[in-house]
Structure formats: C-alpha cells, structure tokens
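for the recovery benchmark. tokens below, seq after
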C-alpha cells in the first residue's frame, strides 16, 4: 500500500514540468485561476475553488497519463481469460504496464503528446473506463484518488498564481527510472520567475 506522499509529489512535479514545456497550456491554467481568484495571489483555495479548476484537472490527468506515478502494477487473474485466441489461466500473475496502456493511439490520438484536451468531457465520452488507470481500477482502486487530485490542484494552483515556469530540460532528453515510482533519472529542471 502506498501512502500517497511520493506518488502525489511525483504527479505535481510532472505536471509542473509539462506546463513549463507547454506555455500555452500553462497560460490557460493561469487564465482559469484568474477567473477564480482575480488578482488575489494569497487567499488559500476553498473546496469550491478546487472543484472549479476543471482545466487544471485535465492537465493533471494528462500528466498522469504520460507519467503515471506507478508505471506498472501486478494482479492475479481471477478466472480463465481468452486474449487473442490464447487462454490465460486463472491464478496467473499479470503485470499491467500502465505507462504503455496510456499510450494506446486508438484511445489517445498522438499518445506521446501532452494534451490536456484528452480529458475534456466531450473527449472522454465513450472511453473504456480501464483505458486510463493511473490510480488502478476496480476493487483495488486507490482509495485516496479524489484526495490526491485535490491536493495536486491545491499545490499547483498556489504556485502558478505566483510564479511562471519555463522548462530548462527538454522532455525528449529525460531518462526515466521505472521503479516503484516513475521518476526522471536526473530530476526535472525548470526556471521559476515571479508572475507579474
């Protein structure tokens, strides 16, 4: 069982990095935050504020799609399953590669591209519920999923209200470590400047 500290901090780091790499999306998030808070950069977000951060949530979700905090998970097959004409017998240990699952081009057009619009309501309609599982799925789903998203929104919105992020590293130059938590080998470098 994970407690959420490492997974949540990883998700926050990846989201801020991707927003630094894509200033057009960062600007859309800032516009959303300005609509919620106006010029106020100090007042903590309320639950209503957090729930109103719909575009930021899309950014977090697409970040988790590209860089799921837990890049793989193990499950025991509960009953015989036929996959492509081959039977996987009950009791088989299966490894689910979340990192690869989230890059299915039939589900996510341009799967390597960061695109928060993947999670706009009209683009999620009809999507299989297990096509996107950064928090696992079914009976072993992460019980802290909703709290984690709210925590990520609280931290990211607080930072983006005050600071602008610019990428120092290019995403394609990163080396990933697919350990228990998906991390960049040498960290994520960004330039942070006060927002006007």
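predicted aa per position
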């Amino acid at each position: 069982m994970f407690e959420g500290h490492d997974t949540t901090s990883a998700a926050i780091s990846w989201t801020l990095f991707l927003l630094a790499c894509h200033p057009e999306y960062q600007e859309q998030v800032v516009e959303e935050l300005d609509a919620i808070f106006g010029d106020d950069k100090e007042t903590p977000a309320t639950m209503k504020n957090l729930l109103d951060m719909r575009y930021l949530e899309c950014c977090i979700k697409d970040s988790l799609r590209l860089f799921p905090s837990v890049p793989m998970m193990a499950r025991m097959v509960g009953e015989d399953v036929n996959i492509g004409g081959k039977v996987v017998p009950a009791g088989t240990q299966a490894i689910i590669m979340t990192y690869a699952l989230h890059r299915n081009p039939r589900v996510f057009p341009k799967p390597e591209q960061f695109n928060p619009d993947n999670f706009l309501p009209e683009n999620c309609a009809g999507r299989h519920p297990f096509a996107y599982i950064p928090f696992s799925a079914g009976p072993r789903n992460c019980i802290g999923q909703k709290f984690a998203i709210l925590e990520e929104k609280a931290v990211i919105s607080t930072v983006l209200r005050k600071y602008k992020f610019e990428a120092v590293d290019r995403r394609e130059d990163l080396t990933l470590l697919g350990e228990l938590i998906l991390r960049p080998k040498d960290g994520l470098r960004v330039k942070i400047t006060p927002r006007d």
